[in-house]
Amino acid sequence: MTSQFYRLVRDLHLYLGLFISPFLLVFSVSVFFLVHSWLPRLGSQTSSTRVIPAVTLSNDWQNLSGRSRIDALKPMLEACGVRGEVGFIRHQVKEEKLIIPVTIPGRETTVSINLSNREATIVTRETGLADALVVLHKSPGQHGPDIRMNWFAMRAWRWLADASVYLLLLITVTGIYLWYVLRSERAVGILLFSAGTLIFFAMTYALIC
Fold this sequence. Notes:
Layout: H1 2-35, E1 46-52, H2 66-79, E2 85-86, E3 90-92, E4 97-104, E5 107-114, E6 119-126, H3 129-138, H4 152-181, H5 186-208
Antiparallel strand pairs: 1-6, 2-4, 3-4, 4-5, 5-6
Helix pairs in contact: 1-3, 1-4
């Protein structure tokens, strides 16, 4: 029974680790671009502009707010060929202008609508692979929870990010178990675990005190 449980834990540790390794790689590599601004952006940035006349807006968008307003304007964005995560909607009343930034990892699109003639100016900027990784790293967080995750692909990414965290916790627990069973590795394991714990609490103390 013990050997069967050991093999089960070993297999879970191995195969679940392989499954989440691409997600962990994205989060790990993106940290370098978040922390070190001098790193190359992994791709040239380009920009393009196009104008679409007579766009169609929903009749009640001005009476809505938050996620409801975004949902009301989504059909217009799709008709203009713009898809992605809407960051916010800015209504400039005096200028009679509506500004909608839309993000896809590696691409930023700003849709500016002149409300007087319903003309949309769409500026698309390709930001490169490094920025795409940073967007994926930051997106699952609780930033603007009342409007965020309004694009299905980003919601799916959040679900996968959550699953990666839970599986990482499982892999950590199974790793400790596998280390404990291998008696020949206990001494080295205790040394490394103690060193990691000491460094963690030392850094935590330095940051909060």
